[in-house]
Amino acid sequence: MNRDDFISIDAIRFGLNGLEKNLRFFITLIIIVSVLYNIPVLIIKYYLKFQTLDSTPRSQDLFVGLVMLFVFLIVYFVVELGLLRIALKFKDNKEVEFKDLFKEYHLLPRYLLATIIFYLILTLPYYPTIFLSMLLAKGSSEEYILVAAILITLVAAAYLHLKYQFFGYFIVDRGSGPIEALKQSSRMTRGNMKNLLIFWIEMGLVIGFISAIASIVIELPVTMLLAIVSEDFAAISGDFVSSTVSLFVAVPLTKLATADIYRRLEWRAPASVGGGEATGDAGAGE
Question: Burial letters for 247-257: b for 16+ Cβ neighbours within 10 Å, e otherwise?
Fold first, then answer.
């Protein structure tokens, strides 16, 4: 079977079906995730709004901000690992529990290191462009060259993102180390770049459409009700409502769909990335 023959819309359909069949689970899950993501942000907003006497920055304000940033990053990466595990369990038709969200904390160091390396790799195409922009004097012909360089840089960064995007799944699924996970993702995505690009374009359109509807039907009415209760409360909690709606649309779809693609590519390239469990459709329950 040709490794370049998976159809991206099938992965998106898997995500939509999984969300529909397990709607109550995902509503509860995303509320938990949104609360975890927003607690540090809400604490900072409350602190800045009610605890500071004026807008003058103080050393303790910076300390509080740095502590909350550190807490947010730890929470984010632990939750991200849990979401990857949950997505794989749905794909493999295994029983899913809310506590799966926190079970992969032991993988945090290698996932954090792999993420840092991943984003460092993504920045590599930008360095020549930055150097070129420093060399070129401002002028019409030079600006055309710089625009062309920027476009090439964006294409290169997108290529690298597609190539290494599955490193998190290898860490969660197989316990791979940071470097090995990136190498495995590179091997698995070889020959599949076109369909992966099509998948992310289609996924962006689907999420944008559903998010627009959810914003009109849910976010706007809730925000208006909060404003009636208290303008201060609405100002603090408005972002929480917005992020919860966005997370509910984006997280289940992207995680389930990418887990589907991960398993499909894994099954079709066992020699290069190793064997994996071969089961499933989106049918795991609570």
Answer: bbbbbbbbbbb
- CA distances in angstroms from 184 to 108, 141, 175, 176, 261, listed in the order given: 19, 42, 12, 9, 14
- Closest-CA residue to 41 (of 250, 230, 249, 240): 240
Residue with tokens 């899913």: 96
Residue 55's φ and ψ, nearest 5 degrees, are -90, 5
Please calculate the CA angle 245-250-252 and round it to the nearest 5 degrees: 105
Listing DSSP states for 196-210 in one string gives: HHHHHHHHHHHHHHH
Query: What pLDDT is attached to residue 3?
Result: 43
**pLDDT tens for each residue of 23-57:** 999 999 998 998 888 777 777 666 666 555 555 55
DSSP letter (8 states) at residue 241 = H
The parts of the chain modelled with pLDDT lower than 70 are: 1-7, 44-61, 137-142, 219, 223, 226-227, 229-242, 269-286
What is residue 280's three-state secondary structure? coil
Give the span between the Cα atoms of 140 and 75, in whole angstroms.
47
